[in-house]
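#onboarding

Welcome to the new folks! Below is a worked example of what a typical request in this channel looks like: someone posts a single protein sequence, and someone else replies with the predicted structure as tokens. Don't worry about understanding the tokens yet, we'll cover that in week two.

Example request:
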Amino acid sequence: MRACLFYLFTQAAYGIYLPFINVYFVQERGLGGQQIGLLAAVAPLLTLLVAPVWAIAADAQGSRLRLLRWAMAGAGMSVVLIGLPAQIGLILLAVAFFTLFQVAIVPLGDGVIASHVAERGGAYGRVRLFGSIGFALGGLLLGWLGGRFSLQSIFPAYAVVMLVGLAVTGQLVDREPPPPPRKGGWGLAVVKDRALLGFLLVAGVAAVGISAGYYFVYVFLGELGAEPSLMGRVSAIGAMAEVPLMLYSGRLIRRYGAPPIFALGMALMGVGWWQYSCLVDPDLAKWVQLLNGAGMGLLWPAGVTFVAQHAPAGRGATAQSLLSAVMFGIAPLLASQGAGWLFDAAGARTVLRGSGGSMAVGLVILAVLWQTLKRPQLAAG
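Example response:
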């Protein structure tokens, strides 16, 4: 139950922040595409550089839960700095300081919870679906606050939800995984698995498309005339579409394996991004977002499960940090710069078409690596 609450509250905070932050920078700070690209690069860069450090230290010391609590507290308190009146340089510093804490939350939480669920023979997706519900509620909350007040509401709303989540989740699990054996070379054993490395390549290409799309899809809807309340509903519908897929993802992964389910998620999102690029009526985004939500509901549990299956003993958080580093670090870093340039040069519609193309490229790479990814592995949790 505490693990469910962890996902409910942390993802609700993400639902308040992620869909709306670039809209806030455009509409209330007057920033352009390249400036948004610069700010968007901060999170993936620090995910790449800092998230593995958090996770390796947590695994090595067996202190994942303690560091997770520090990360949640730091993110909840530092987010308000981003909303203070400032020029682009100070905004950049505020985003960086906030991100130092936020990037640790997902890999540390997944590293503990995925192992905990697997030990008890459960399915990760049945726990993670509470995150989708939380993300939907966060989007609805901020859509209402943004329409009634302003998008400045992002920052106090995120702070309250994250800190309440810290208070109610407590210990999170009864017992976290033990630290790894002293031998093991700083966690480098994690990257010796060829199947894991191949999967991370596929996940990274997919994440380029996901990141580029989400950087500008709500900006695009704003250009079409969407109000914050509609954007909140679109975000909530996509998140709720994840729930039934996550509910049955464990069963699907056990039957077909993680890579095919990841591929299906990519295919659904590829179609979704292409459909977005064809929109002229923002109200239709509610239906298109069903595809993206369904795709993420399959893609993320399959990714976390595959990585958990290939993680060396005691290195669960480290392995999950690699997935985060690729999907929320390297890929978004590339996407932020490319998408920012493309937005200024050709507009958001072209960015969304590129997102669909990236998903297609990921499917081709997965097909090439199919035999490597099908190597024998543990049963899916």
